[in-house]
Structures are given as C-alpha cells and as structure tokens.
C-alpha cells in the first residue's frame, strides 16, 4: 500500500513537471505586462517601450507586451507590484539600480531584493548636473563657490525622492566638495526638467539620456557628467572628475520578474532580450533614441544587483541618507 502511494505521488510530480515544461514551451499564450515604476517620458519608460516590440518579435508566437506605468514613492509602488505578482512570466518589470537597492537598505520597501528574478540588464545611463540656459553657473566649480558663499541656498532638483540614487549622489558630492546643498525631489523626470526650464530651481540632476535633447536645443546646459570619461553622446560636456570632483554615478535599468518564475521561462525571456540586443533594427532604434546600452545576462545581472546592495549597505552604516 505504501509502495503504491509513493508511486502515485511520483506520478503526480512527474505530471506537474511535464505540465510546467509544456506551459513554458507554449509561453506566452496571453499578453505580458511590463511594469515601469516611473511616469511616461523618462529614461526608463523610453527604454521599456523601445525594447518591448523587439522582445515580442523574438519571443515569437504572436507575443504581446503591454508597458504599464505605475509611478510613485520613488519607484516603490511599481517595484512592489512586480515583486508581489504571480510568478508565471506574465508580469515582468524594469528595475533601476541603485534606487531599488536603496529602498531596501533603508527599510522603506515592501519587498527584498531576493523577491526578484533578474532577467537581463539593458542600460547604464550616467548622471548629469544641469542648469537653465540663462544660469550664471558655467561649471561645477561655479555652483560650488555659490553654495559655499551661502550654504543651503542652492537647491538641486531630482527626479526621485529621499534616498533615491540622485539624492545619494548629491550627498556624496556635498562631502567631496565640502558644501551644503538643498535636495528638491520632484518624483519624476518631466517635472524636474520643467522646473529647470522655468527657472524654479537653479540646478538639477538627471540621467544623460534625459538631458540630451534639451541640451542640444540650448534650453539647458550640462555642466558636469558623472562618468569616468566624456560621453560620446555629448562630447563637449566635461566630467566631474575633469573639474576636480571624483563623482561617478548613474542608473542601470534592467528587466526582472517575481521570484519563483519557472527557469525555462526565464531562459525564454533572457534569450528574447539577447536576440533583441543583437537585432540590427533594434540597435538602430536604440541609437536614434540614444539609449546607452549595457547588456548583462541574468547570472551577471544577479551578481551586479547583489554587489550594488552590499555597497549601499556599507554606505548606510557609515552615512545614512534619511
């Protein structure tokens, strides 16, 4: 009797395994939601909408991906939706490093980094410091001197919230430049750009891709790029390092799914991203949209996420950013 029961259990397990494999083989059989934790028009939204149709193409079988914007709380709302979704491959989302790690480290998130299954990283977008076209500040040094003359008088706008990657960068910059600045969070790229354009704030940080068009149109001026070398997209803009401040920071954007998603579906999604990033049509579209591509496959992406979290935990112990 015992032997028969065990055989029955093994039969059920085998049937479930075969069923899971069959489901993965047919995947996707319905539309996939790709959640973006920020408002339309920002760098993450552009990256998501640019890759979605090419992932559809390389998933095959009439795959459909709908980009869903769920902004708020510095990304926490959208990322929570991804982490808590059913792990069946029909909800995936873009996650942003180091902003998502920072929420976890400071205890604000309703999720842990282990609640996500990394699929692939797509983008590394360096940060920039920008001012309006009529600003008296021509360089980072000019802004630093003004801040030293009147500590706290210079407001720096960001697209995030307290503890966002931009805020942490400002704190590091304050330390390196020995100045006191005022953080002005706007919660999105569009409103912080409008604040700079309207002269409501003297300066702002954002990602390079989000500043390129306005910079080229002469509406804003990039006075510092937070990368090791000048960007090919904006060769006239000096780095912070060139100006004597060792500030290197940026945002990585990649795709993740809820923990527990079947491994063969992860492999399908990863393969679709890999094929898209080798698709000449996509590469041309990304070039036109000036998306700074930086691909990491799921294993490397997981290692990168783990290191980013560990680095922020070390920073938090020494200098909490609340």
From TrEMBL:
The keyword Signal applies. The keyword GTP-binding does not apply. SUPFAM superfamilies: Periplasmic binding protein-like II (SSF53850). Keywords: Signal. Pfam families: TctC. Residues 1-24 form the signal peptide. It comes from the Bacteria. Belongs to the UPF0065 (bug) family. This is 3-phosphoglycerate dehydrogenase. It comes from Chelatococcus daeguensis.
């Amino acid at each position: 009797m015992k032997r028969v029961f065990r055989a029955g259990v093994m039969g059920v397990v085998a049937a479930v395994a075969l069923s899971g494999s069959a489901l993965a083989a047919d995947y996707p059989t319905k539309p996939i939601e790709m959640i973006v934790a920020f408002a339309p028009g920002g760098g993450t939204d552009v990256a998501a909408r640019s890759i979605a149709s090419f992932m559809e193409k390389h998933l095959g079988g009439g795959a459909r991906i709908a980009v869903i914007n769920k902004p708020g709380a510095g990304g926490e709302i959208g990322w929570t939706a991804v982490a808590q979704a059913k792990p069946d491959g029909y909800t995936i989302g873009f996650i942003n490093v180091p902003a998502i790690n920072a929420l976890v480290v400071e205890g604000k998130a309703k999720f842990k980094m282990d609640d996500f299954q990394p699929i692939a990283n797509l983008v590394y977008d360096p940060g920039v410091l920008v001012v309006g076209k009529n600003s008296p500040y021509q360089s980072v040094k000019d802004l630093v001197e003004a801040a030293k003359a009147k500590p706290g008088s210079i407001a720096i706008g960001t697209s995030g919230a307290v503890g966002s990657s931009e805020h942490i960068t400002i704190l590091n910059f304050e330390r390196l430049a020995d100045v006191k600045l005022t953080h002005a969070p706007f919660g999105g790229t569009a409103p912080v750009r409008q604040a700079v354009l309207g002269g409501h704030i003297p300066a702002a940080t954002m990602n390079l891709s989000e500043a390129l068009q306005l910079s080229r149109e002469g509406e804003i001026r990039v006075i510092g790029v937070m990368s090791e070398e000048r960007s090919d997209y904006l060769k006239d803009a000096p780095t912070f390092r060139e100006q004597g401040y060792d500030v290197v920071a940026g945002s990585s954007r990649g795709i993740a799914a809820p923990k527990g998603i079947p491994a063969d579906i992860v492999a399908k999604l990863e393969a679709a991203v890999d094929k898209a990033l080798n698709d000449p049509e996509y590469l041309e579209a990304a070039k036109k949209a000036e998306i700074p591509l930086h691909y990491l496959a799921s294993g490397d992406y997981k290692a990168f996420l783990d290191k980013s979290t560990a680095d922020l935990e070390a920073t938090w112990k020494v200098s909490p950013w609340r």
